[in-house]
Amino acid sequence: MPEEGWLSRPNETPSPLIVLDDVVKVYETGEVPFTALKHVHLHVGAGEFVGLIGKSGSGKTTLINMITGIDRPTSGDVIVGGTNLGGLSENELAAWRGRTIGVVFQFFQLLPTLTVIENVMLPMDFCNMYAPLERPERAMHLLEQIEMADQAHKLPSALSGGQQQRVAIVRALCMRPRIMLLDEPTSSLDPEMVGEVLEVMTTLGRAGMTMICVTHEMGFARRVADRIVMMDEGEVVEVAPPGAFFDAGRGNPRVRAFLDRIMRV
Ligand SMILES: Nc1ncnc2c1ncn2[C@@H]1O[C@H](COP(=O)(O)OP(=O)(O)OP(=O)(O)O)[C@@H](O)[C@H]1O
Ligand SMILES: [Mg+2]
Fold this sequence. Notes:
Layout: E1 18-27, E2 34-44, E3 49-53, H1 60-68, E4 75-80, E5 83-84, H2 90-100, E6 101-104, H3 116-126, H4 134-145, H5 161-173, E7 179-183, H6 191-206, E8 210-214, H7 218-224, E9 227-232, E10 235-240, H8 242-246, H9 253-264
Parallel strand pairs: 3-8, 3-9, 6-7, 7-8
Antiparallel strand pairs: 1-2, 1-4, 4-5, 9-10
Helix pairs in contact: 3-4, 3-5, 5-6
This protein binds adenosine-5'-triphosphate (ATP) and magnesium ion.
């Protein structure tokens, strides 16, 4: 790790850093209301790496959106680093998110007309963080850490999917977030690109970043996560360290059904 490391902020908040207390989310958009989260309780400690798994439609992205404050629960509380997100206005929430959370999505969402380094600088420009002259240096330093400094002045379209996703990860890191939330960061990558992205996330996790990663990479989750959280039909049905989850978890019929299904594909 370079001196500055991936992390620069001590974990000054006592655990748990993330608390979901009886969170219910009902989508009212369809013809009939749909309950996507059903009384979810979850605590995530500072420095913990949570692998969030479950079949399509089980509520993983909805859960992530509650923690970023991109969406709000219908009832229940989301408390992150002691801040109850329900008490923040939209503007306060956006500012809080920029300071606190790095988010990475399945599709890299790099701006196609900006170069790699401009993309990495974007959040710093947007939030007016760091002196303007410091920003390129900081962005380059981050790119060096993923061995992408030599690609800094290319457009995203000139990079492989794996490279683009690594850039999206360091872009999310540039504001020194205390928490990284990643929603299927490798799902849209060609298989040969997956490893390099998992490696960056593994390094981050080992450096003590608090992370929740939605993933279908079971080997990765087993190797790197401190705990596995499994969702099914809007409920958290199992929370356990990987060893216990993948072995003893099979005692839970919903876990067994999920694992049997993914092992078959
Ligand atoms: N904006 C919305 N309006 C109505 N229903 C929604 C909305 N967003 C999600 N849903 C529904 O809520 C449920 C949970 O969706 P969510 O996206 O959280 O699932 P997921 O576990 O992330 O699935 P995937 O693995 O496919 O990404 C799904 O049945 C989905 O159709
Ligand atoms: Mg999803």
